[in-house]
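Work Package 3 (structural annotation) set out to generate three-dimensional models for the target panel prioritized at the project kickoff. During this period the team completed the workflow that converts sequence records into discrete structure tokens, so that structures can be stored uniformly alongside our sequence database. As a representative example, we reproduce one entry of 119 residues exactly as it appears in the project archive.
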Amino acid sequence: QVQLVESGGGLVQPGGSLELSCKGSGFTFSSFAINWYRQVPGKGRELVAGIKTDGIRNYKDFVKGRFTISRDNAKDTVYLQMNDLKPEDTAVYFCNAERFQYLDDRSYWGQGTQVTVSS
């Protein structure tokens, strides 16, 4: 059974830090690119950062210099270190695993973890 489980969310003050984790199971984790998305009520999910199977990372401009994505394939886990958090970072953060393979594209989602940045 495929699962992606996010953890590490919570309430933090502006300027604070959190580290989110995304643990996968039931599939070959190392063969999938892993992305973090976030969503606020009334809006669609937006990509935050991603890391490919070869370790290449990409970030949206609004988190560059503040967030760092990393992966540990031995633990089937991807991390999102979030520093200098701002109130506008408040959202539910979702982990996504995706693989593009001829006639066999796959995409899996976790249930999300709430991040609230507030004083």
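The chain is about 0% helix and 50% strand.
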